[in-house]
Amino acid sequence: MQPNEIKQLIEQGLDGAQAYVSGDGSHFDAVVVGEMFRDKSLLQKQRLVNATVNDRITSGELHALSIKCYTPEEWAQAGKPGA
């Protein structure tokens, strides 16, 4: 898989999300920003993102995905691009 494919899966699965994905073909890092993370625990946030790519993980097409989730406000406070 390519980072842009994972980005597309996440953004299609989480309406209004913005995903930033990098990786080497088997191990990927995803930063996902969206309102859907408001008032959610870390585990709940990661489950939301995992649900968008679970088929690819189950099939073995996606081996490892590290996930960091932010609300738009958290992202802006962190001084990240696009905030």
Give a structural overview:
Helix 1 (3-13) packs across helix 2 (42-59). The N and C termini lie far apart (27 Å). The chain has a three-stranded mixed beta sheet. A hairpin with a 3-residue loop joins strand 1 (18-23) and strand 2 (27-33). It is globular and about 35 Å long. Helix content is 42%, strand content 24%. It has helices spanning 3-13, 42-59, 72-77, and strands at residues 18-23, 27-33, 64-70. The chain has one domain: GMP Synthetase, Chain A, domain 3. The relative contact order is 0.21. It is an alpha+beta fold. The mean pLDDT is 93.
Q: In terms of topology, how is this protein built?
A:
Blueprint: H1 3-13, E1 18-23, E2 27-33, H2 42-59, E3 64-70, H3 72-77
Parallel strand pairs: 2-3
Antiparallel strand pairs: 1-2
Helix and strand sequence:
HEEHEH
Name the CATH architecture.
2-Layer Sandwich
Helix content: 40-55%
Q: How many domains, in number, for the residues?
A: 1
CATH classification class: Alpha Beta
How is the CATH topology named? Answer: GMP Synthetase, Chain A, domain 3
Radius of gyration: 12 Å
Strand order of the largest sheet: 1-2-3
The total beta strand count reads 3
Summed up, the helix count is 3
Termini Cα gap: 27 Å
Mean pLDDT: 93
How much strand?
15-25%
Low-pLDDT runs: none
Structural class: alpha+beta
Shape call = globular
Q: CATH superfamily name?
A: BolA-like
> Biggest sheet: strands, sense, closure?
3 strands, mixed
